[in-house]
Every structure is written in structure tokens, then in C-alpha cells.
């Protein structure tokens, strides 16, 4: 824990759990002297702590991996890995993916030897044997309060992170709603126009072909007048699903307004765009939608669509707006030529 963070944590440590509330906290005692281990354990036992023990550094690391104690009381001088080396390993793995924050109190029989080194390595406190049990008890309580507060801060940060992720997800959902047609589930006009500008700029930059298709359901007003608006909505959804199924994942299909749909086909030249449009037109003409009138007798309803398509690069289409106007003009040409057909803008 950095000095600044430790200071902020200690400032609010007064609000951490009181001594009685620390009962049940786990304290790992690490010492190769069984007499000293018993002395420390007996002195701290009245506070209700749970004790685990290790007799050298290797055992201490194993115990930490298994149980994640709340505090470590560790002798500096032990066979094999000493207390300072173990402390170095603990503090080097103090992240959430490692041991987390575990306060360490080092103990030694030597007066000042190793104290500066131990504290510089991240030891949170240091005691010289023999020490007064009241002093040990006070320091243990202080470290356990620090640990409890740190745990609470970690949990609060996790809650905040979860809340931020949930907020981001809700924001994405809201953003999707503002770009989605509620009836058909397709992109709406706003989303299409944003994508059009991006795709047109990319086409200009790399010289890649880009085709724009406008589709209009023929005689849609007659369908609404004859069968009612709920059935008209059913027709719109059926056309949207049919057209979407004939396009690629990279293609964008949007509801442009009323019974009009619009599509962007990246990396698609004039010949391929014409084939796509004919495929969509054929699929719509093959639809057989069932309408059940007031008599309860089902009636098969057929429909057709007219499509206009324009493609860039083209010398007479210098802008995204020009491309859109050319496709729109081609759509009206298809309708003027008798409907249920595709008309392609001639460069």
C-alpha cells in the first residue's frame, strides 16, 4: 500500500470495526520457535481471533495461498525463507489477482537490524522481542482494523465497478433504441445516415465500390385500406425479415420511413448490386401472407416491391447526398415503369 493511500486509510480507520467486532478474524503466526508461537497465541486468544500457524517461510506462503489470513505475525529469522523474503513476496503479489492486501507485522530478537529493510519492503509494523503483550495486542487490533477497512474499500470499488458496467450497458441499450426502428427491429433513418457518411468516406478514400438501394412496397396504402393497419405492420415486418435474410452481415438495412426501406452494400459494384436487388425483389414477390378478416376466413395476400440502386465511384455522384438522390430517382423510375422491378442508376 502506498504511503498516501495508507494515510487516507488510517484517517478513517477510527470508523473501522471495534476490537470486539474483530473477533473471528484470521491471524497467521509464523515462527520456528514453538514456545514463542504459543506465547503469542495465548496472549491474543482472549480477543477471539482464529489462528493458523507456520514454522518457516515456505509453510507461510502455502498457508497464505490456502486461507488468505487477515494479518500475518512473522519472525524475521527462520530457516530457509526468512521473514523479510516472505514479506517481499507477499507485497509483490498484493494485487486482486494475487494475495490482496494482507498487513504484515515482523518480529525479531535483534534491536534495529532489518527494521528499515522490513518496512521499506512493505511490512506494516515491526516489533522487537521480547515485547509487551499489551503493545502487541494494540498493534494487532490496529492492523486488523486497517485490513477490515481495506476490505470494505475493495468491496465498495467492486460495487462501483459493477454499477459503472451496468450503467454502460444501459447506455448502450438506450443508444441502440435511438438507432432502431421499433416495429421492424431494423436500423432507423438516423443510424442509416450516420453509416452512409462513414461508408461513403471510406469508399472515396480507398476507391472501394459502394451501392445504395431504396425499396418501396408497391401499393402499400391499398394494403392498409383493405386489410387494416395491424396487417400493414405485419407486412412491414415480413418485408424487413425477407430483405434482411438476402443480405450479408456487413450490409446495412434500415427502415427509411413509412413503407420505404434503404440498404447500404459495401464492397459491392453495379453488377453484384443488381443481382442482390433482384434476389430481394423475387423473395418479396414470393411471400404469401395470410389475413383473417371479420368472417374468420383466411385470405392469402401477395405483394411486390420496387427497388432503385446507385453505385459509387461514379463521376456524377460526388457526395453521399448525390448517391442517395440517384437511388431515390431510380426507385421512382422503377415505379413509373410499372412497379415490381429494379431500376439501376446509369453513370
UniProtKB/TrEMBL annotation:
Alphabetical keyword list: Coiled coil, Phosphoprotein
Record GO biological process: phosphorelay signal transduction system
GGDEF domain boundaries: 208-347
Coiled coil region boundaries: 146-180
Enzyme class: transferase
Signal peptide limits: none
CDD domains found in the cross-reference section: GGDEF (cd01949)
Modified residues (4-aspartylphosphate): 75
EC number: 2.7.7.65
Catalytic activity: 2 GTP = 3',3'-c-di-GMP + 2 diphosphate
Highest rank taxon of the organism: Bacteria
SUPFAM superfamilies, A to Z: CheY-like (SSF52172), Nucleotide cyclase (SSF55073)
Stretches assigned to the Response regulatory domain: 26-144
GO molecular function, one term: diguanylate cyclase activity
Xref: InterPro entries: CheY-like_superfamily, Diguanylate_Cyclase, GGDEF_dom, Nucleotide_cyclase, Rev_trsase/Diguanyl_cyclase, Sig_transdc_resp-reg_receiver
Name of the protein this chain belongs to: diguanylate cyclase
